[in-house]
Specification:
This protein has about 300 residues and is an alpha+beta fold. The chain contains 10 helices and 6 strands, in the order αααααααββββββααα. A hairpin with a 2-residue loop joins β4 and β5. α4 runs antiparallel to α7, α6 packs antiparallel against α9 and α9 packs antiparallel against α10.
């Protein structure tokens, strides 16, 4: 467990890089030497890890948020953040699957045909390692500052709710324009439909489903942390049940190692959830007092 080898980088082409160029020039005599092979492998692994670390944790890895008033710039920023978030999720899924594959299925290749191996335990170990690694990687690739950035972008983007035209025939309806920032509660016409502004500021395209999904997932800043906490808690409960019911020593050791790593991930997620919950509650209380005074 914990074997994370980022050979697959989703936003770059490894064939255009020089990581494996020295491996193509290896002659037949050099290929025989086991020491040369090990050095080439370690060099390739080290260079790949350096590029991956620079790519994820470099100064240009974390996007920034610009509090602008231009609707077109806000929509462009949301499109960039959607691409960045999708890339991070792909990195999480592919890396967790690779880690679980190396841990659960690769050792089966070295088992002799005369030996018996538990297929059910291999599949269960694959699922446990993949889910645990996914949560840990999401914790690193989606930190609290990144979730706050997505929340700010969703708050500036806004959202529209489709309403029945027959119910609002007597209410003023404005034609939607892309260069206008619409306030909350206003009704607009777009693509022969009527929409109501939901957010405090609304520059999203009413008929764009991707804008609606972006606002739904990131309008509440603690939604991602709550989902990760529930998923990690469910995995820990299942692992405790499996640990108490296991009778084989190798299963007990594997479950205990995965469980300790999940304890640490759950502690960090719970800490971030409590700290951010307090911070957002303090920031929201002045706004509630202001709304109460005006009401």
């Amino acid at each position: 467990f914990g074997m994370y080898i980022p050979f697959l980088q989703l936003n770059c082409d490894l064939r255009k890089t020089s990581l494996f160029s020295h491996m193509a020039t290896v002659g037949p005599r050099e290929a025989v030497s086991g020491l040369a092979k090990s050095r080439d492998y370690l060099l390739t692994l080290r260079e790949t890890w350096k590029q991956h670390t620079k790519q994820l944790y470099g100064p240009d890895a974390m996007p920034t948020h610009a509090c602008c008033l231009s609707p077109s710039l806000i929509r462009s920023e949301v499109e960039f953040l959607k691409m960045d978030f999708n890339w991070r999720m792909k990195e999480v899924l592919v890396s967790s699957m690779l880690s679980a594959y190396y841990v659960a299925f690769v050792p089966v290749w070295f088992v002799k045909n005369t030996h018996y191996y538990d297929k059910r335990w291999s599949c269960e170990l694959f699922l446990l390692v993949s889910i645990s690694t996914s949560v840990i990687l999401m914790q690193h690739l989606l930190p609290a500052s990144y979730c706050d950035l997505l929340h700010k972008a969703a708050a500036h983007l806004g959202c529209w709710q489709k309403v029945d035209p027959a119910l609002c025939s007597n209410v003023l309806q404005h034609p939607w324009t892309e260069e206008c920032m619409w306030p909350q509660g206003v009704l607009v016409k777009h693509s022969k439909n009527v929409y109501k502004a939901v957010g405090h500021y609304n520059v999203a395209i009413p008929s764009d489903v991707s804008h609606f999904r972006f606002h739904f997932f990131f309008s509440k800043p603690l939604r991602i942390l709550n989902i990760l906490l529930l998923l990690e808690g469910a995995v820990i409960v299942y692992q405790l049940y499996s640990l108490m019911s296991s009778e084989k020593w190798h299963q007990t050791i594997s479950l205990a190692l995965i469980l300790f790593s999940n304890y640490y991930a759950f502690f960090k997620l719970l800490r971030d959830r409590l700290v951010l919950g307090k911070a957002y509650s303090y920031s929201a209380s002045p706004q509630r007092d202001l709304d109460h005074r005006f009401s």
